[in-house]
Amino acid sequence: MTRPFRTLLFGFGLLVAAACSSNLSELDDGERSRITSREYSAPYDRALSATIQVLQDEGYLIQSTNRDEGNVYTEYDESGGFDGDFDNDYRRRISATVRNLGAASSVRFHLILEEREEGLDWRRIDLDASDVEEICSDLFRKLGRSLQAPE
Hints:
Layout: H1 3-20, H2 29-36, E1 37-40, H3 44-57, E2 62-66, E3 71-74, E4 90-100, E5 105-116, E6 122-125, H4 129-148
């Protein structure tokens, strides 16, 4: 392999790595929606119930649910970030929005990560898009299995 070709490959690798490490806020609406939303051929009530159950199975405590609007909010988990490392300077929360599409339903997850600043103030952190994609993919996979299971 020639030196210019290796340099070109290295540069391309850096470009790909930079693109993969985008923060969620840097993505356009379509890409953000692709990562955080899915449609299921399940009625609204079943999709909402399954979403609540999946979040509970993942260890999140449900703070509130609005069945009319399709909103599910979890309590803040102050045991750390989404990576599973215990660190009480971080807290996380997931909420979900379920929409009725007639014979189908859409589910969108919202992930919030906050860092403790000096004192007791919390500051929201812009999550890495690849982390959000990994977490949402896992939740959507479990939600899909739950919706395919017989009632």
